[in-house]
Amino acid sequence: MTKQIFPSYLDKLSDVQREAVEYCSGPALVVAGAGSGKTRVLVAKMMHLIKLGYQPWTIMALTFTNKAAREMKSRIASELDGVKFRDLRVGTFHSVFLRIIRRFSDKLGFNRDFTIYDTSEQKSLIKKIIKDLSLDDKKYTPKICLSNISNAKNRLVSVEDYRNSDTLKKADKRNRLESLVDVYTAYQQRLFESNALDFDDILYYSNILLRDFEDVRQTLRNEVKYLLIDEYQDTNFSQYVLIQQLMGPQGLVFAVGDDAQSIYGFRGANLDNILKFEEAYPSTKIFKLEENYRSTKNIVNVANRLIQNNIRQIKKEVFSSRDKGEKVFVKECFSEIKEAEYLAQQVSEAHSRKHYSYRDIAILYRTNAQSRLLEQELRKRAIPFKIQGGMSFFAIKEIKDVMAYLKLINNPNDSEAIMRTINQPKRGIGSTSQERIMLLARERGYALSDIIADEKLLSQAGLNKGATKNVLQYNELLEALRTLDQNDLKSIVTKTIKLTGLYDFYCQGNDTESISQKENINELINGITQYEINQHENGEDAGLSDFLTDMSLVTDQDAEDDKDQDYVSLMTVHAAKGLEYPMVMIAGLEEELFPSAYSKSEKDLEEERRLFYVAITRAKEECIITHATSRYQAGYRTSSVESRFLKEIEGDGCEREKGYISDFSNDPDVERFQRKNHESFDRPSWQLQEARNYDRAPKYQDRYEATATKKNCRRLRKIDKTLDNPIYDNVDYGVYPGNRVKHPKFGFGTVIIVEGEGANKSATVEFETIGTKKLLLRFAKLLRLD
Ligand SMILES: Nc1ncnc2c1ncn2[C@@H]1O[C@H](COP(=O)(O)OP(=O)(O)OP(=O)(O)O)[C@@H](O)[C@H]1O
């Protein structure tokens, strides 16, 4: 092996990084601050172990994304001659353990070619179950059912455990969801019948394998000598137990993580796993990486000031040896529209005046919905951008159709794939026929794959002759597809697209939709070609089942950066984890948005704070943060209170700028006026101040599906009305001497005198164009501008 390169990887490390890499006598935890070089340490550790004589396949390294795994593998394989990509057992928890489950699938009663259901397949299955169990689909929504099932699996609660648990029963009763246990039972049963697993099952069944099968445990323990784990702070209970079962309490576990960046609590990540690492592995040695190599001093200091407000954390002093750099800049905007305009303008300026490339800039936000206006504003200025982690390619309808056929070739029992493809493209098997087939399957316990192949069963189901013939032809089509060579991936995919009729269905029209569908299908074929090349280069198999497995593991964070292209990246803060950009803008720092309206407890708030910490620490040189004082939500304009986190970051290295006057009317005159007079109007209007004083009503009911009470809705409308019509509905009209106002006919002016009472109240206004006028406020329709 290439010994001459070994010193170089150690040379690139700081003292403490090297100590961590070289320590190999027991479990270790590397507490790594943001930007402190976790990736470098993990790669070096792997090389070091290989140098010490560990065979590459005896080191298991678990990363958070497939992308990180690929990068790690290619760095190691390119630096170490003789080490092959395929020899490295590096991947996400899900991909590594999926391979293990396939290997031992017979122990679990699954066929080796099982399918992994994605979210839409899970939802579709749950909907059918809710219908079959005659449950109220308003109460038992797929989202609620799936999140409860996911929680149960991530806590390793089996269907039987669930049924026997008084605590869970009580909780479900309290939530009026007593039948959740039946939904869970049916869901697991149907997955099993379809020879399918969902994402959580991968870890769940891995745990079962290690717990219940002594021979599997021994085999794996003999194989895995060293375990490296990245992003340890985001492991959940199921992963925690899995690691312990695999390695034991004295095992050679090398965990790297940053408690301050634990942001997946909503998915079951348990911060205690890192906080209490030593309890699980008593002989642990802890290393702290505290130098942030990424960001300027100002950015690091502001981020530190924020995170010190969290109680649950491991103490560390993150510092930067770089310059102070620009101050972190916090900008108040009067509406989300103004905010988007401002950010787009900053991008323009950074590009033209500061010579940033677009690819150096990222705009981060808390929720996907915030991207729409940003996109609009960037488009207006012809700024190229890309939404990262948006709708997955594999969630596109036409791609799902092709994938469903491919899954069926691989796994004939996949009932979701049967129901998706049976009449897609249309072949005369309508919804009544489909329901009858499903009913027979449910009532008599037949597999769908058996029914569609059997004329007698189809007639028992009540299908007429025509429909029966069509179903049988569909089944023959599937049989024919299964005779194709599954190792010739490109050929099987192109033939499937043609033979199933999907090509004619999607690719014949000339309208924009058909063109885009055709492009997507072509993109799939291009992707497959690329996949075959990559697999080949890495010495890995590229058959149909390999492809399906790898695609089922693709996550939002796996998108490859296109290094040749220049565009601004837009993404949620979650999607930005692990990334870095010279300039980072963070939008929407408002209460109930960031922190999210859902974070009610102190624990939730701490997670939101960590999320903001992740956002700030993505920045290398510059960080701009914005918040809007009002936002259009659920059909109403509502006032927004600035995020509590903004107070927390105030101080050295942070500069704030208040917004200019509000523009609720979107009147170009008002806008022009604002621009002209912005210096003298740097305070939010009294209406906003007043609205802010309202006790916080749930504002984002649409987005968060929160159920606002009627009273709150009325209150929101009232605020909204006040904001949209700042003067007309106010009892005292809110006009005082000195106020700047706008009249629909007379234009801009200044109030000189206010006199009279109630309906007779009047104002004398000095207008810029027509001079002084006395107006009855009841009728005057004055718009107050300050
Ligand atoms: N010893 C070092 N000397 C100089 N630069 C380093 C050193 N270690 C890491 N870096 C650089 O610091 C930057 C941050 O490293 P990396 O992305 O691995 O950090 P990280 O710990 O994963 O950060 P985060 O958790 O915030 O995503 C990278 O550009 C990396 O090349």
From TrEMBL:
It catalyses: ATP + H2O = ADP + phosphate + H(+); Couples ATP hydrolysis with the unwinding of duplex DNA by translocating in the 3'-5' direction. It comes from the Bacteria. CDD domains: DEXQc_UvrD, SF1_C_UvrD. ATP binds at A32, G33, A34, G35, S36, G37, K38, T39. Residues 11-296 form the UvrD-like helicase ATP-binding domain. The keyword ATP-binding applies. Coiled coil: none annotated. It is an enzyme of class 5 (isomerase). InterPro entries: DExx_box_DNA_helicase_dom_sf (IPR013986), DNA_helicase_UvrD-like_C (IPR014017), DNA_helicase_UvrD/REP (IPR000212), P-loop_NTPase (IPR027417), UvrD-like_ATP-bd (IPR014016). Keywords: ATP-binding, DNA-binding, Helicase, Hydrolase, Isomerase, Nucleotide-binding. GO terms for molecular function: helicase activity; hydrolase activity. Its EC number is 5.6.2.4. The keyword Zinc does not apply. PROSITE patterns: UVRD_HELICASE_ATP_BIND, UVRD_HELICASE_CTER. Residues 297-578 form the UvrD-like helicase C-terminal domain. Belongs to the helicase family. UvrD subfamily. This is DNA 3'-5' helicase. It comes from Falsiporphyromonas endometrii.
